[in-house]
Amino acid sequence: MSSVKGDASLSAADRKARRKRARARRAGKVGPADSAPLVGTSTPSTVSAVSSATSGMFSSEVGATAHGEQMNVGTIFWAAPEVLLRGSIAMTPASDAFSLGITLWELATRGTLYAGENALAVALEIVDGRRPDVAGTPASLVPLVPIMTRLWENSVELRLTLDEAEAELAGTYSNSAVVYPTTAAEPSGEITAVHCTLRNARVRLLRDPVETGRALRTFHTQLPELASDIGVSVLAWGLGWLTLGVHRSTQLTELLGRCQALNLPQDMAVTMLVTCGEVRVVSSTRGGNRELGGPVIDSMRSLWSDLFGLAHSGLEEAEERAYAATLLPSTPKSLAWEHTIAGGLFVAEREIVNELTQLDGVTARPLPWPVSDTTVFHVTVGDELTVVDTLAQRAAKPSPSAAALKASTSRHGEWLVPRSEIVGLVAQGGETWMGSYANAHRARWRDQEVVVKTLLRQDLGPEDVIRMAELSASALMSSSETAVGPLAVCLDKGQYAIIVPFYEGGTLDDVLLGTRRNVVFDAEAVAIVARLLASSLAKLHGSLGIAHGSLRPSNVALVFEGSRIREAHAIDFGMDGIKANMGTMTMIPSVAYMSPEALRGDTTNIRGDVFVMGTILFEMIARESAFSGSNALEVGFRISNGRRPEMTPSQIPSAAIRELIDRCWRADPHSRPSMAEVVEILARLDVTEFVSSKRNQVRSLGRAGGRK
Length: 708
Prior knowledge:
Blueprint: H1 12-26, H2 44-55, E1 63-64, E2 70-71, H3 81-86, H4 93-109, H5 119-127, H6 145-151, H7 162-172, E3 189-198, H8 201-205, H9 209-229, E4 233-238, E5 241-246, H10 250-260, E6 270-283, E7 290-293, H11 295-308, E8 344-347, H12 350-356, E9 362-366, E10 377-381, H13 387-393, H14 402-414, H15 419-426, E11 432-434, E12 438-445, E13 448-455, H16 462-478, E14 483-484, E15 488-490, E16 497-501, H17 508-513, H18 523-542, E17 556-561, E18 564-571, H19 576-580, H20 596-599, H21 606-622, H22 632-640, H23 655-664, H24 675-684
Parallel strand pairs: 6-8, 14-18
Antiparallel strand pairs: 1-2, 3-5, 3-6, 4-5, 6-7, 8-10, 9-10, 11-12, 12-13, 13-16, 15-16, 17-18
Helix pairs in contact: 4-6, 9-16, 18-21, 18-24, 21-23
């Protein structure tokens, strides 16, 4: 027996059933030879005895006691010393007691007996007193150690009898100590599940992405650590939520105490709901993701919906998710108290409540109404305020309605779309292409044409997802008519994605490469693009204090009226941190549109946008690449080492624009003009200053390193 397949702890009925199964198995077990010479020490004759006896363990014989009970020897590692020496003649209830001691060691440690060792050599050492190392016994199972060691005594007279062992084992049994054999990756069987959320975190991101990001990092770093410290398993996670598996009710109060000690903003707290039942891992019918399922999750979902509402809980069914703003079919009961009690521990299992209330200082008060036909208790420690107390104090005060809550959160909720919606948008089958950090899919969403960008990497860790949430929220908050951020994002595992507007007119990149036909790209068009782009960037730099981070022609969207350019929008800004997380899956960025400091890793410096603005100005007027080379490394080396194109009047006719580009390209970021100054300079220039010697001609620009 090298692993445990059944429950680690058994009731009387379970033990009876197991004995019945064991008797059935014994009919097919093999036993030792009927006889072997008896010797008392590990002399050469001991070797012969053990060799003879153990070789018989692979025969077809089964020994029996004088009382007619069959005695199973099993294999060498479970055989008592006397059986190893004398064979089946030594099989007695005492030898079975020895085997029980070895089996208990396996159950307690989940270890493998004498792994990789020679069986005959081990048998000799067992006769001389060798036993498994009990040092690996978990602290919770240490009471089994003296029972094990007395069961495997060398002397038959000193061993516990089976009846004595049964009595001592019964004394150690407790429902609260039952540990079900399962794994966090593939949980199965009956469990006590705890769903923990940092409620309202996703909605709060749009109000304060920086502080909310810090709170999410605290939640996703410290809660799994403390769970591990107290022996609790993390079964599933998503942004702002965890599902845990606990083994003892006392772990719940430890979780509660440590969650309350987390350094979180005043209006944020961890909410926990406990229920029991069967769990299994299921495959979603949409998106192919594996997730927790079974009766325990169904019960948890129903209770959570009634208590708190399903929005952003991690419990929404993937196949039936709707927009977060519409997941309020009825008024969540928590609206009656959450203005006073932000989080807390709620238990839907009376047996667990009974165990918890036996602990010092623990109070459990039932909520005054059933929740999905179940009595749910609010569990507190010490003199904490309970929900019942809060309701009594607020009896005369009206609570906000579901409609009011929906109205207050609709704007925040609409920017978060569920996983199933991304799957549906991609399934529309629109045009697709690969960008620098995402697969792009053209689709129709909420009556407008959009591009759905599903990240190339979907196996993101908590830090990656939090960073994506922060950047997306910041970009959306910073969005304006000419600096256009994302419309929405999906932060659900397996379908991390960003939804952005689709521009029928394409981008400046298309114009410079000549892939868009019938475009009037004269001095007026260049002036429009330059002025609007600089103005958009100045707003990002000034009032918002953020850099675009990945400015290049492909991130300048154009709006046309016929064949003429009327507007230029800066898009895809603030996303560089997400691109960095794509690792080796990301295509080499367009090095020709990076500043020296960006090449050194600093993509957040707003003066880096000024450098690239100079590059774009040069290319719009000169109609040729500013920085080119045989490969991306060569281009990057030239930029970082101060190599700049020689601007001649034949390339850039305007002396004023040549001077502006030269200032933008200075190696020292602080020597460059601010974007606000660039706006002023461009506004003062006459349209004729933007004329190109190549007039309306465009040609393919030989750039190294890829487009996006």
